[in-house]
Design a protein that fits this description.
Layout: H1 21-32, H2 41-62, H3 64-72, H4 94-97, E1 112-117, E2 127-131, H5 132-136, E3 155-159, H6 167-179, E4 182-185, H7 195-204, E5 209-212, H8 214-226, E6 239-242, H9 249-259, E7 262-269, E8 273-278, E9 285-287, E10 292-297, E11 311-317, E12 328-337, E13 349-355, E14 360-362, E15 365-367, H10 369-377, E16 382-391, E17 394-401, H11 408-423, E18 427-431, E19 445-447
Parallel strand pairs: 3-4, 3-5, 5-6, 6-7, 16-19, 17-18
Antiparallel strand pairs: 1-2, 7-8, 8-9, 9-13, 10-11, 11-12, 12-13, 14-15, 16-17
The protein binds zinc ion (ZN).
Residues 279, 281, 286, 341, 343, 345 line the site of zinc ion (ZN).
């Protein structure tokens, strides 16, 4: 059975790149009728070592900053002997590249095909430059037939930002080029795409896949009721792919019930592109090891952590010429596991715990906001709209009610009792009816020391 159609292959005239060599590797896999997802680990790691060394040589020869950092770390040539040695390559800090579009650029500026920016809620954005070949050739080399079952029978609605950041255009390219699906580029509430029109378009064109954020999936579901569009009847999705914010398994389950379809998590970023995606077993993200090498470090000592230990996620991109990320500190917290997945994928599995700055310290213990959200979402009378506020070490939960007969006071008491039982820490609860909806990133966690915007 063939799912992905790869209807079109792009080529670029007079192009030479350190990545050309990997076309043969992926062609070989095609010929064998296999994808990188099910390769024996030795073959995956052999490919990754070659790709990392090709990237190290590329940055060594084309970027002053990377070269000086490797020099300082004692490298006399841009090469590691095995994957363990990747730990000796210097880490790339976010603040080094924030606001600086040249710092790690590895090509002549005239080679840039596309610029993307991070949303940069605080301070200056991070600029990432891609060549045309990055996005239309190399990014499409690794295929993931197990992780994506989409085909040209599908119609994908992309409700992700198309402005500045990567997600909208990234998903659009992936679905168009790799799977041959028709695309409905909804964006997220832009001038041309109000919510009712977006839902109408999904209905008219019988969308089967929706790629969006958890909060926007909730917003669309909520608004569908207002506009009289019945989910599961007027819009019958097979799958929703969630990205951008991350959420708990219980939040996901509630979206699955509401939309009446499978909901899968996808992890990526504007800086690193694709990083991980869930298979239908839903037990964490399979790392897209054709595209990236993922490590986990202790954020304080910066030492690499073994499988199973939680720390900061480090990403090295494998198929980039414009602006490769080498051991990039993502600021995301998680842990890696060896795959023992029933789906048969041999790709490592990543468990995400959230952003470093979103961790909630209660009674000296750091809690993932996803865990607290999970406890909150266990209460069916609470809606998908809530905020956690941390002030002087005390957690305050503000949440909206959902189809409940309880008064606000009764619900607040119920939430408090449940959370104390689950968390073992007391909290304040306020039931509100005006938690802000957003077309941007939903802000779920507010710390007293940080501005509330
Ligand atoms: Zn799996």
């Amino acid at each position: 059975m063939k799912f992905q159609s790869h209807k079109m292959t792009v080529s670029i005239d007079e192009h030479s790149s350190h990545l050309e060599q990997f076309k043969d590797f992926f062609k070989q896999l095609d010929d064998e009728g296999i994808t990188i997802e099910k390769l024996p680990r030795e073959r995956i790691e052999d490919y990754q070592l070659k790709a990392i060394n090709a990237t190290l040589a590329h940055v060594w020869h084309h970027n002053e900053y990377y070269r000086s950092k490797l020099d300082e770390a004692g490298f006399t040539e841009p090469k590691i002997e095995n994957l363990e040695q990747l730990a000796s390559v210097p880490l790339l800090q976010k603040n080094v590249i924030r606001g600086d579009k040249q710092k790690i650029l590895c090509i002549d500026p005239k080679e840039i095909g596309q610029v993307h920016l991070t949303s940069g809620t605080s301070g200056k954005p991070i600029y990432t430059s891609y060549t045309l070949a990055d996005q239309y050739i190399y990014d499409l080399l690794p295929k993931y037939l197990e992780l994506f079952k989409e085909s040209d029978e599908d119609v994908a609605a992309i409700a992700l930002p198309y402005e500045f950041a990567l997600p909208g255009l990234g998903f659009q390219r992936l679905y168009q080029f790799a799977f041959g699906t028709a695309i409905l580029s909804l964006g997220k509430g832009g001038y041309m795409a109000p919510v009712d029109k977006s839902l109408e378009l999904m209905k008219e064109y019988k969308a089967t896949v929706l790629a969006t954020t958890p909060s926007y999936a909730a917003l669309l579901a909520e608004e569908s009721e207002r506009f009289g569009i019945k989910l599961g009847e007027d819009i019958r999705l097979k799958k929703i792919v969630l990205t951008g914010e991350g959420c708990s398994y219980t939040f996901r389950e509630r979206l699955e019930k509401w939309w009446g379809c499978e909901v899968s998590f996808f992890y990526g970023s504007t800086e690193c592109g694709v990083v991980g995606v869930e298979c239908s077993e839903h037990r964490g993200y399979h790392v897209m090891e054709g595209h990236v090498k993922v490590e986990v470090i202790d954020p304080v000592s910066e030492k690499k952590l073994p499988y199973g230990q939680t720390g900061e996620i480090i990403v090295t991109t494998l198929l980039r010429e414009g602006m490769p990320m080498v051991r990039y500190r993502t600021g995301d917290i998680g842990l890696l596991q060896k795959s023992k997945c029933a789906c048969g994928c041999t790709l490592d599995v990543l468990q995400l715990r959230g952003r470093m700055e979103s961790m909630l310290n209660l009674g000296g213990v750091d809690y993932s906001p996803f865990l607290i959200e999970h406890f909150l979402m266990e209460i069916p009378d609470v809606s998908l709209w809530y905020q956690f506020k941390l002030s002087k070490g005390v957690l305050k939960i503000e949440a909206e009610p959902f189809r409940t007969n309880l008064t606000d006071e009764q619900l607040a008491a119920k939430v408090r009792t449940h959370m104390v039982e689950r968390l073992g820490v007391d909290c304040e609860v306020e039931i509100k009816h005006d938690i802000p909806r957003t077309f941007g990133k939903a802000i779920r966690v507010l710390h007293e020391s940080k501005p509330e915007k």
